[in-house]
Amino acid sequence: MNQIDTGKFIAGCRKEKGLTQAQLAEKLNITDRVVSKWETGKCMPDSSIMLELCNILGVTVNELLSGERIEMNNYEEKVNENLIELKRKDENNMNKNAIISTIYTIAMIIGIMVCCICDIAISGTLTWSLIVLSSILVIWIASFPVILLGKRGVLVAMIAISIIIVPFMYILSILIKVNEVFSIGAIMSIISLAFLWIIYALYYRLKERKFLATGITFLVAIPFTLLINSILSKMIGEAVIDIWDILSIFILLIIAVAFIIGDYARRKGHIR
Fold this sequence. Notes:
Blueprint: H1 3-16, H2 21-28, H3 32-39, H4 47-57, H5 61-66, H6 72-123, H7 129-149, H8 153-176, H9 180-205, H10 210-236, H11 243-271
Helix pairs in contact: 2-3, 6-7, 7-8, 8-9, 9-10, 10-11
């Protein structure tokens, strides 16, 4: 399995079907830049659209991965070769990620140990270092799946942080002896998590239209900003929306519109 061969094969099949890169991209709801990257061997088609691509080009997934038409008597052999190659690449990526995640974990442990030693040396017991320890632990739980699994670990990280964030705010309020950290922090955390899940869903649904996903993200940020400010205003008993908040909302709106227009312009250019 070779990306260059696969790219040339995609280009050849596309031309056989009388399609331009822009026309193929439109059928797949992606940009022609992505098609160009496939055909130059810079990357492989995403697994989520590979079947649809094969249907459009009139080839099998095995032929696409092999970068050539396959006769029936060689078909099973090519299947095995591609499966072995895919497994080898996956194993190599996992090994690299495992090494990086191990180094990352060791660095976290060293940081915790240094803080604890300094705390004991200064205070004679564990005081402020417990705050650092719990914070680092939360960061590690949220980031480790992404480092180890890459994109596949994002969902795991999202679930993990959703489970631990409220208990963390409670523990933090006990450690620093400020009840408001939990009463206010827990609500803010839940709202922030809802926003993060919306962003995750947007980018998952619009994975090939990142400009549009980004524009919608900035738009969604506006009501969430107003909601957070409104809740804070009621909880602390004073107005928290000022000129700077209004300016921030205006800037978010401008950025959102710019990304949405950018997505429209790109789509219109591809159709032409």
